[in-house]
Amino acid sequence: MRKSNKSSANYPPCKYACPILTDVREYVQLIAERKFTDAFASIRRQNPLPRVCGRICTHPCETACKRGQVEEPIAIASLKRFAADGLWADQYKAALAIESTGHKVAIVGSGPAGLAVAHDLALLGHSVTIFEALPVAGGMLRVGVPEYRLPKDVVAAEIEAIVALGVEVKTGVKIGKDIKLSKLSEQGFQAVFLAIGAHKDRKLGIAGEDELEGVVSAVSFLRAVNLGESPQVGKQVAVVGGGNTAIDSARSLLRMGAKVVSVVYRRSKEEMPAAEEEIEEAIHEGVKMAYLTSPVKIFGEDGRVSALKCIKNELGKPDAGGRRRPEPVSGSEFSLDVDMVVCAVGQAPESSLFADELKLSETGERIYVEASGSLATSLPAIFAGGDAVTGPATAIEAIAAGKQAAVSIDLYLRSKELPSVEKDKREETQALPSTVIERTRSFSRPSKINLSVDDRLKGFDEVEACLSEDRATQEALRCLHCYLGAKVDEERCISCLTCVRACPLGVPTVSKMGEISIDSFACQACGICVLECPVQAIDIDLDSRAKIFKQMETAMAGVQGQRPLIVGFFDFHGNFGAGDIESLRRDYPNIVPVMVFGVRRIDTVDIFKAFALGADGVFIARCPSDNDPFLEITDRIDRRVSYAGRLLEACGKKKEQLDICNMPKEGLVEKEWVDALIGKIKGMS
Amino acid sequence: MKSGSNLERILESGQFAVTAEAGPPKGTSSKVVQRKGELLKFCCDALNVTDNQTAIVRMSSLSGCVLLKELGVEPILQMVVRDRNRLALQSDILGAAALGIGNMLCLSGDHQKFGNHPTAKGVYDIDSIQFIRMVKEMRDEHKFLNGEEISGDVPLFIGAAANPFADPFEFRVTRLAKKIRAGADFIQTQGIFDMSKFAEWMKGVRDRGLHKKTYILAGLIPIKSVGMARYMRNNVSGLDVPQDVVDRMANSKDPKAEGVKICLETIEQLKEIEGIQGIHIMAVAWEDIVPRLVAQAGLMPRPIV
Amino acid sequence: MITVEQKKIEEINTMTKDYSCLLVLGCEMCAAISFAGGKRQVAELAAAIRLSRKGSGEEGEVFEESVARQCEPEFIDLVKDKVADCDAVLSLACGAGVQLMAERFSDKVLLPGCNTTFLGVTEELGVWSERCVGCGSCVLDKTAGLCPIARCSKQLLNGPCGGSMKGKCEISKDVDCVWQLIIDRLSRVNQLDKLEEIFPVKDWTPAGHGGPRKLVREDLKS
Ligand SMILES: Cc1cc2nc3c(=O)[nH]c(=O)nc-3n(C[C@H](O)[C@H](O)[C@H](O)COP(=O)(O)OP(=O)(O)OC[C@H]3O[C@@H](n4cnc5c(N)ncnc54)[C@H](O)[C@@H]3O)c2cc1C
Ligand code: SF4
Ligand code: SF4
């Protein structure tokens, strides 16, 4: 009657948090349904570098994930890697434009920003050339991030897929030096995208830095490592800085033979910008941490580094950025005996090459782009994005910049216009009501399967393993299906309050005039209200009524003629493995599995539908109760089945024809049980 | 005098009255009633003829009364509102008066759900208190419930029931007061087993001076067996049989004798309670015991007033 | 609300077996709130009837339809075409709805799919209890807001009777003695003196004992 759904069009937090708005919820659900090919396609449509992101993305989606409020967020990045690493991923075919537009675009830099823009523009029918100064493509993914986190062949494969779209990559060409920026238009390029990244290490600004041998910049060190140049490493090394670059340098140093590696960071662990898991792994591998410590001076012997003099800090008042400023404690100086110092205190773009043509940011380092979000620089037809504009950031932000640039460039090429991009206001994830948290069962996030430290330090083998199919599926099942839950049809609702009373999480509320509101964030799509609503005014997007019917119809159409024909409603939440459904299909062609998220919501109407479609028997396979994401509601199935059973008997069916099968701890159903059911049904006469 | 019945006269004279229950048969045999009448004639001042007791269909109470009256036994006509609306109640009262019945006991009646016609429609047009008032107005004002005039007298000594053991206990005295105000001349109570509770109720009755406004006959149910004691304890609504009564019956070698003993002890105690004007014995299916009980209680012979 | 309970499927099957083309018509007010006449119950019942008919040779057709309230002529007129197309209508409304349907479609067979139970309240999901009998002259002001006519097994106005034990009615340990509740409430609101009054006999005319009832509002009526 008079209902409303709060924020029904809301994005799930994971999607909202993602710079490229990846439909995380969708692919997570597809993984839960074991539709891995579809899951990969869903990711790939949005993201040209899924294998990269599955490994090194900083996953803001996980920070936002609603599950995190219950226990731990969904391991979204690991699931992405799982979907992207599988064989099925090779079947993906990007949807190329049918006709070429004839427009030529030059891209400077082959990092994630450059690759993303190239990918999207190629799909739009433009002809794209990437110029890369280095001998290899991939930007920081290739020459920054170490192999043990992101293997070279993974990056290479991603680039290959983009090249396959017709993108040309010219390595060893430094724009600004080998070819002037202004010359690009003469070569027929109608637009340029500058994605030169930030590869110039900042200086420490302390004595000894410039003259002593053994002081190296982190970026150049990592580049050398990644290019296979086997740079010299010291025995005892200090890495100055607290970002991922510092940690990656430290861990690489250990792999290159350094005996003692200390990370010198001026604030405490809490303030460290590097990802926490990276810090943990580094410590685990033996990296020493010197927090609240600043370098003061590098000492040398015979022109080589011999020690690093440091001073201890205290944290003082927060600075403009809100981080507490480190203040040196006088008299706390001490020396570290080192023979190598790696400076990882930040990078800036090598923008000097373009300084005479392009406007730079206020500090004179980064490339200036217009505030409109179009990524247009001060020159017409030239766009820029990624680390070159933002300073060192993340791969996914660079990809997002690339994707945005593709939109801008495409529009520009077609109509000489520039878009004005509305910055979407990224809201904080809404807080779940405490009752909802209490009544939602906790499940643990999969622990990482990593190489042993010994094996790691032998070389640059990838540390983290991919999730197994079964583990990935189970993990995907933890997703709480944000915003896929109950929607009330205002026209149909009669304010009967059933949903208010039946919801195991206490989500629906009612106004004085009978208006039902279902907070679509708090709702977790258990489906109970859909089942109970007497006027069918509620449906959920996850497994809608129609979807279940359709699944049943399609499945049954395929097996007519098999006798006795039995429909089994199975719950994805059971602990069954990949092969279980296939083997059921193989062993029992007469059993039609209908898969749903929660058999708790199977209705008498569904059961009758199965019989109407010609089933001789129906069973509901109930997953072990501790798999059910909602506490204490499994007995509903008993009540539903006994109600439906009574009705069926009155309609001339036998009670043997409807049953509950308790799914075993592992696997789908026990053979003996199925055989017994078939036997009973056959024996009915 | 309200009706001048034997019962009224005995009570008026201040003597300790004895009444007993004589249930009519589930059939047409007048002998059953007559036999009970003969049996109880000399040990009781009047006999209650029950009205489809526990909602089981029996010969009508009015017919039973007539049969007793023919034997020279004084009947008390029991009448419940469960089965009769105001029309039927009034017409039966007129009939009773015409047949010379002098006493009646106005009751709600056990719910039809307990009886042998549990699917019957209950009438409950008026309740027992309204019933008492109606009879009183018929007698004293010669008026029907609608205010119309009744031709002729309706001389009835009006009785009501009281159950001191039902809940809420505090209200039980109030309810008695209401019944008295409505017009109850005498009261027959539920069978008494829990003497201390009964005594407490009686104290409440005396505190409000109610014992001066009506005659209270204390109810007695002789117990034949431990089974019966248990059954009453667990299944009969409105009855309160304490565990020690059940135990006494259970431990006794001669339960019948024990039952009689319990009854006699109760009577002795009752005699001591101020405001008790007599006893009413409900010896369901054990009417034979009544003469012995009355005799052993020292209440024989019955006075003639 | 009026509570309604679906009849047993056996009874419905017997009632409907002679009508090949059947319209199961839901009523989405009280009957739906009672889980007897909503769209879902219509679907469930229609499926059950179809299944029962299956194999009997006379399967006929079972259609499903619902209206907001079958007790309003305007609503039921909206389904007149569907009604015209069937041999009989199985109405999942209360008795009032069934009858209005019968009046409106005078040449159609109308069958009740439900039993109308009482005027009551929802205690919790799936539990309802009676509160009112529609006696036409409310006494709740004198009985602490609790109705002895609807809720006392003997409809005593001067209760409780001698069968009230531990707060329960003599008819069952599952039924509250409403007089106990009344007394408890009167004591809470300090009005125990109300119990001393003798409630006069009730006029049952407005309760329907004066013949079928009708309510006319002269100011509203056209
Ligand atoms: C050690 C390290 C670890 C990191 N770890 C992570 C991580 O775990 N997760 C994460 O999300 N991000 C991480 N990052 C950051 C991430 O790699 C960068 O934010 C991202 O690569 C930036 O992409 P981009 O395309 O803007 O630039 P880049 O990837 O830097 O690519 C720029 C490319 O442009 C080329 N180039 C420069 N100038 C010219 C020119 N004049 N002509 C032609 N080519 C030119 C460069 O050679 C380079 O290949 C890390 C960075 C580093 C350094
Ligand atoms: S619970 Fe699922 S949909 Fe919600 S934020 Fe986490 S991954 Fe996304
Ligand atoms: S789907 Fe489940 S959680 Fe959501 S409102 Fe309905 S009953 Fe509540």
CATH architecture of the largest domain in chain C: 3-Layer(aba) Sandwich
User: Shape of chain C from CA axes?
Assistant: elongated
Stretches with pLDDT under 50, minimum 5 residues of chain C: none
> What is the helical fraction of chain A, as a range of percent?
25-40%
The SSE order of chain C reads EHEHHEHHEHEEEHH
- Uncertain parts of chain A: 1-8
CATH class of the domain at 201-347 in chain A: Alpha Beta
The CATH topology of the domain at 201-347 in chain A, please?
FAD/NAD(P)-binding domain
- Chain pair forming the biggest interface: B-C, 36 and 30 residues
CATH superfamily of the domain at 201-347 in chain A: FAD/NAD(P)-binding domain
- Average pLDDT over all residues of chain C: 95
> How many E-type strands of chain A?
24
Could you please describe the fold and organization of this structure?
The complex is a heterotrimer of chains A (685), B (305) and C (222). With 685 residues, chain A is an alpha/beta fold. Chain A contains 26 helices and 24 strands. Among the domains of chain A are: 201-347, FAD/NAD(P)-binding domain; 484-542, Alpha-Beta Plaits; 545-684, Rossmann fold (3-Layer(aba) Sandwich), CATH 3.40.50. In chain B, helix 8 packs antiparallel against helix 9 (243-251). Chain B starts with 5 loop residues before the first helix and ends in a 9-residue tail after the last helix. Chain C has helices spanning 9-16, 30-33, 39-53, 73-77, 80-84, 95-104, 148-151, 178-188, and strands at 2-6, 21-27, 61-67, 88-91, 109-112, 114-124, 127-132. Chain C contains eight helices and seven strands; from the N terminus they run βαβααβααβαβββαα. With 222 residues, chain C is of the alpha/beta class. Residues 485-486, 499, 502-503, 505, 507-508, 518, 523-529, 540 of chain A line the site of one iron/sulfur cluster.
